[in-house]
Amino acid sequence: MKILIDTDQKTLVCESADGREELSLYSDRAFDLIAEQWVKVGWNQRYSYTFTWFGRPIIQLPEDMIRTQEVIHRVQPDVILETGVAHGGSLIFYASLCKALGKGRVIGVDIEIRPQNRRAIESHPLGSLITLVEGSSTAPATVAKAKIDRREIIS
């Protein structure tokens, strides 16, 4: 696929095996084509690794975070379960939303939680809202450790 953008003419031309498509640069279709390329280039550039939340690295795209908080605000869950802890940024993000809502807690499950990340998460000002569980998220023993009532979870 080849995309040509002409900002003077305000057009986008997409050439592919299916043919040639000329669009208004400000059309929904043009936006979708540009956005798709932006995401591909962003992943290639590791763009999602360039952010932090309240001091912890967070491996998420900002738009995804905004969309996620919209769901959390609407649902107002008692528990948010995150599988895959990494550096803990997502856990801190969810805990900050729980604090703002005045309710909820976060459970982070990972097969291996690095000691420096565990210390940073547990000592964080929002750490009291977070429970860390180490183990495979699909193992019955790990699920039992989390003591989750599935009716109150967003995962």
Molecular structure report:
This protein is an alpha/beta fold. The chain has two domains: 2-45, no CATH class; 51-154, Rossmann fold. The chain is built from five helices and nine strands; from the N terminus they run βββαββαβαβαβαβ. The protein has helices at 28-44, 62-75, 89-101, 115-122, 140-146, and strands at 2-6, 11-16, 19-24, 51-53, 56-58, 79-83, 105-110, 130-134, 153-154. Strands 8-7-6-9 form a four-stranded parallel beta sheet, with helices on both faces. Strand 1 and strand 2 form a beta hairpin. Helix 2 (62-75) runs parallel beside helix 3. The two termini are 36 Å apart. The mean pLDDT is 93.
Distance between the termini: 36 Å
CATH third-tier fold name of the largest domain = Rossmann fold
> What's the total helix number?
5
The biggest sheet, with number of strands, parallel, antiparallel or mixed sense and barrel status, is:
4 strands, parallel
Q: What overall form do the CA principal axes indicate?
A: elongated
Structural class, by secondary structure, is: alpha/beta
SS elements, strand count? 9
Task: Name the poorly predicted regions.
Answer: none
The count of domains is 2
At the fourth level of CATH, the homologous superfamily of the largest domain is Vaccinia Virus protein VP39
Mean pLDDT, to the nearest integer, reads 93
CATH structural architecture of the largest domain: 3-Layer(aba) Sandwich
Give the amount of beta strand, in percent: 25-35%
* CATH top level label of the largest domain: Alpha Beta
Helix content: 25-40%
